[in-house]
Amino acid sequence: MSYLEDTIAAIATPPGIGGIGIIRISGPLAEEIARRIFRPKKPISHLKSHHFYYGHIIHPENEEIIDEVMVVLMYAPHSYTGEDVLEIHCHGSPLVLKQVLELSLKLGARLAEPGEFTKRAFLHGRLDLSQAEAVLNIIQARTERELQFATRQLQGYLGQEIKRITDCLREFKAHLEVAIDFPEEEVEIAPLDAWLPRIENQVLKPIKRLLQAYSRARVLREGAMIAIVGKPNVGKSSLLNCLLKEDKAIVTSIPGTTRDIIEDVLNINGMPIRVADTAGLHKTKHAIEAIGVERAWEKIAEADIVLLVIDVSRPLDKEDKEIYEKIKEKDIILVLNKSDLTPKIDEKVLNKEFKDLPMVHTSALYGQGIEKLEQTIYHHLLGKDVSIPSFIPTLRHKQVLERAIEVINRIKEAMVDGLPAVFISVEVKEALDILGEIVGETTSEDILEYIFSQFCIGK
Ligand code: GDP
């Protein structure tokens, strides 16, 4: 029997005692099972689709009543799975539910695997894969925000956006194929120059926007991570204390005292932000300090934002610049600390050395500029647009999108280098296959299995 020809059944409500408990059955036998075990209170010729009926579940052999129930039959394709679906609403007793489930198994259904109802919905094209994942996320949401993201994903926005992107790539591929098939006619592949901006604007940019939405959503969902760096004695520990509004880090005037990493969570406008104060990133022969420096680098790699602290009461030196050189690939906010003292650094020098970095003046000693710093961090994390994005890729989507970007960058390079259409076409197919994984067009069986196995039975 092929996968979709059999009938599956499961208890769809959570285990334990409840007001009602629901048995869900999907597949070609759903209607027959209803006919054999359900006795409506008022005689009827047949169960109408999407109508609720009151009656009893009876044992088909001895007519013994098992429970008083409501049933609803939803004929294909207008059901959750796209197949005939029968729901039996029983009293919420685990014993009753077990008996009704066993009856349906006796009549030819088999026990559903976790997520199998949703998997069937996907296989019947009722949902794309990103929507099926949204169902899982709705069930598993722990916060209102997670729920909101998942609900939006269920609307299929992500799938629609991916379709717009792949439509453009398909059109491009068709053009390339004409050029491959009719080389002698010298059909110009609508000069490549014309395609480059389209690939940029209709493929690359939308993918990057999705990735941004991911990181913003992740920050909103899970909070962010900030690392405080700077040479010794610039006021990193003091700044951390100010942000946390308590004395957690040991503040001393001896350079190199923060040997371990102090980490805590602060809350900016309701967003949880982990802050790590790192040891000075200077070279050291001291063994324990060296460990601190190494850990500092790990934290910096993890951080969404790095606060680079500079002591403005002393001239900018080689060490400040070296630290900046090492972290300049990160998202940096420059914190000009000790601004209560006479400045020894010219703003022009700062602008020249730290091209266009956002800067905030603070005095960690007097708690000045801290609020401004907090708001700068907040806006930096969320971007200018603080509204919640409507497409929220998950980690799986993010990884797929990143792979797609790599291939598309290769395509761009190949176009610029004037490589043959055959070569570019292979890469375009690769990009299409990768993007297809998001909606489930090209997703491997393993991944499907993995995704649906995270569901509960009955969903
Ligand atoms: P770290 O080594 O970078 O963590 O620096 P600390 O936070 O331990 O501070 C080193 C010294 O600078 C301490 O004596 C602090 O009191 C002092 N300090 C920190 N921030 C400020 C500030 O904004 N203004 C002034 N005047 N002193 C500060």
What does this structure look like?
The protein is an alpha/beta fold. 46% of the residues lie in helices and 17% in strands. It is built from 15 helices and 13 strands. The chain has a 7-stranded mixed sheet. It has a 6-stranded mixed sheet with strand order 9-10-8-11-12-13, sandwiched between helices. Helix 10 (318-327) links the parallel strand 11 and strand 12 (332-337). The chain is flat, with a radius of gyration of 30 Å. Guanosine-5'-diphosphate (GDP) binds at residues 230, 232-238, 251-253, 258, 337-338, 340-341, 363-365.
Topology (SSEs and partners):
Blueprint: E1 8-11, E2 18-26, H1 30-37, E3 38-40, E4 52-58, E5 65-74, E6 85-92, H2 94-106, E7 110-111, H3 116-123, H4 129-140, H5 144-154, H6 157-181, H7 192-222, E8 224-229, H8 236-244, E9 262-268, E10 271-277, H9 287-302, E11 305-311, H10 318-327, E12 332-337, H11 347-353, E13 359-361, H12 370-382, H13 395-416, H14 421-439, H15 445-453
Helix pairs in contact: 3-4, 4-5, 6-7, 6-14, 7-13, 13-14
This protein binds guanosine-5'-diphosphate.
Assess the beta-strand content as a share of residues. Answer: 15-25%
SSE string, helix = H, strand = E? EEHEEEEHEHHHHHEHEEHEHEHEHHHH
Going by helix content, strand content and strand pairing, the class is alpha/beta
The span between the termini is 22 Å
The low-pLDDT segments are: none
Outline type: flat
Largest sheet properties: 7 strands, mixed
Could you tell me the radius of gyration in angstroms?
30 Å
Count the beta strands.
13
Number of helices: 15
Mean pLDDT: 86
- Helix content, binned percent: 40-55%
Task: List all distinct small molecules, including ions and cofactors, that are bound in this structure.
Answer: guanosine-5'-diphosphate
